[in-house]
C-alpha cells in the first residue's frame, strides 16, 4: 500500500491542497474547524510529511546523519544511544551509517546523507592512512554542517569533540611505569591516523618524564577490535615477554585477555593488562579491567550542543574540544 500524500489529505478533508498544507504546518489563515478537519484526515490516513518536499521548499528536515566505525564495539552503541536521545530532545531524528573504517563506505554513506537532505552530519572518521576527504568538502560546499566526534581529519575545518587521548595514555603508562612495569607493549591502531599518534605521544611522554628507556618495537599496530587485540598479543608474545600490555580501547583489551588465558598466562600476576574507554563490562569481567574513563555522555552532549549551534548559526566558531580523561585502576594490573 502506497503512502498517503497531502493530496489524499486534502481530498478527504474536502479542502484545497494549499489549505491542507497551511493547516498541517500551523500557518495562519485557516479557521479552527477546517484545521481540525485536516488534522483528523491526516491522522486517519497516517499521513507523514515528505522530508524531501520540505527540503525543496527550503525547510529543514530535522534529521542529522551519524557515522560510526564499528557497531560491534559497545562504545559506539553507547554513543548512538546518547546522541539519538539528546537530538530527540530538540526535535531531531538520526539516520545511521556504519563505515567499518572504510573510506569508500564512508563516501557512500555521505552521499546517502546528501540524498536524504540531512540538516547536519556527526561523524567518527575512518581510520585510514591517506584519506580522500572530498566527500566532507562536498558537505561543506552544500552548507551542511559537520561535527567530528572522538577523532578528526586534519584537513577538514570542522569542530571536534573528544577526550585528551595523549593525556589519557600518559596517565595510564605513567601509573604502570611507577609500579615497576618497564617493558610495556602498546597495542594501537594505524600509526598514520592522527589519534593514534596522540596516544603514542602520551605513552612516550610517560617514559621520558621518568627517564626510563623503551624500544620502538614495543608499539604494535593492528585493528582496534577484539580480534586485533588477540592477534597483536600473539605477535608481542612471539617477540618478547612484556610486563604489561596496554590497548587503545576496552574491546581490544578483551582480545588480549583471551589470548593470554589460552596460553595460561595469569593476569595480573604474570602480565598486567589495561584498556581505554571504561565501558560497562570493564568492571564486571572475570578480572576487572584497569582502564581510562571516557565521559561518553558528556562527549555526546557537547557534540550535540555544537551541532545545534552550527544549525542555528553557520558562523559558529570552529573549535576542538578536549575533555579530561580519568584513570581507573582495577584488578587487571598490579605492582610488578
Task: List its salient traits.
336 residues, alpha/beta, 434 Repressor (Amino-terminal Domain), Rossmann fold, 12 helices, 12 strands
Describe this structure in words.
- With 336 residues, the protein is α/β, with parallel strands linked by helices.
- It has 3 domains: 4-48, 434 Repressor (Amino-terminal Domain) (Orthogonal Bundle); 61-161 and 294-322, 3-Layer(aba) Sandwich (Rossmann fold), CATH 3.40.50.2300; 163-293, Rossmann fold (3-Layer(aba) Sandwich).
- It has 12 helices and 12 strands.
- The strands form 3 sheets. It has a 6-stranded parallel β-sheet, with helices on both faces. The chain has a 4-stranded parallel β-sheet with strand order 7-6-8-9, sandwiched between helices. A two-stranded antiparallel ribbon has the order 10-12.
- The mean pLDDT is 92.
Amino acid at each position: 500500500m502506497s503512502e498517503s500524500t497531502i493530496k489524499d489529505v486534502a481530498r478527504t478533508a474536502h479542502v484545497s491542497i494549499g489549505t491542507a498544507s497551511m493547516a498541517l504546518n500551523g500557518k495562519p489563515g485557516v479557521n479552527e474547524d477546517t484545521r481540525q478537519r485536516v488534522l483528523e484526515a491526516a491522522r486517519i490516513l497516517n499521513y507523514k510529511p515528505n522530508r524531501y518536499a520540505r527540503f525543496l521548499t527550503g525547510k529543514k528536515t530535522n534529521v542529522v546523519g551519524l557515522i560510526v566505525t564499528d557497531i560491534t564495539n559497545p562504545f559506539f552503541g553507547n554513543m548512538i544511544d546518547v546522541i539519538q536521545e539528546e537530538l530527540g530532545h530538540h526535535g531531531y531524528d538520526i539516520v545511521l551509517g556504519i563505515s567499518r573504517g572504510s573510506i569508500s563506505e564512508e563516501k557512500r554513506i555521505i552521499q546517502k546523507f546528501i540524498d536524504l537532505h540531512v540538516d547536519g552530519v556527526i561523524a567518527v572518521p575512518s581510520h585510514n592512512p591517506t584519506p580522500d576527504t572530498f566527500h566532507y568538502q562536498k558537505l561543506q560546499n552544500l552548507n551542511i554542517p559537520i561535527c567530528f566526534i572522538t577523532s578528526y581529519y586534519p584537513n577538514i575545518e570542522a569542530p571536534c569533540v573528544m577526550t585528551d587521548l595523549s593525556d589519557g595514555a600518559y596517565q595510564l603508562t605513567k601509573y604502570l611505569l611507577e609500579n615497576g612495569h618497564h617493558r610495556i607493549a602498546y597495542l594501537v591502531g594505524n600509526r598514520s591516523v592522527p589519534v593514534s599518534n596522540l596516544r603514542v605521544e602520551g605513552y612516550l611522554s610517560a617514559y621520558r618524564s621518568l627517564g626510563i628507556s623503551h624500544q620502538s618495537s614495543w608499539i604494535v599496530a593492528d585493528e582496534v577490535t577484539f580480534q586485533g587485540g588477540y592477534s597483536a598479543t600473539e605477535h608481542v608474545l612471539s617477540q618478547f615477554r612484556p610486563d604489561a600490555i596496554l590497548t587503545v580501547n576496552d574491546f581490544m583489551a578483551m582480545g588480549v585477555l583471551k589470548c593470554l588465558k589460552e596460553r595460561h598466562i595469569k593476569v595480573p600476576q604474570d602480565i598486567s593488562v589495561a584498556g581505554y574507554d571504561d565501558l560497562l563490562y570493564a568492571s564486571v569481567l572475570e578480572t576487572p579491567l584497569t582502564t581510562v574513563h571516557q565521559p561518553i555522555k558528556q562527549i555526546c552532549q557537547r557534540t550535540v550542543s555544537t551541532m545545534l549551534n552550527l544549525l542555528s548559526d553557520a558562523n559558529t566558531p570552529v573549535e576542538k574540544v578536549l575533555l579530561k580523561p580519568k584513570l581507573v585502576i582495577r584488578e587487571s594490573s598490579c605492582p610488578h
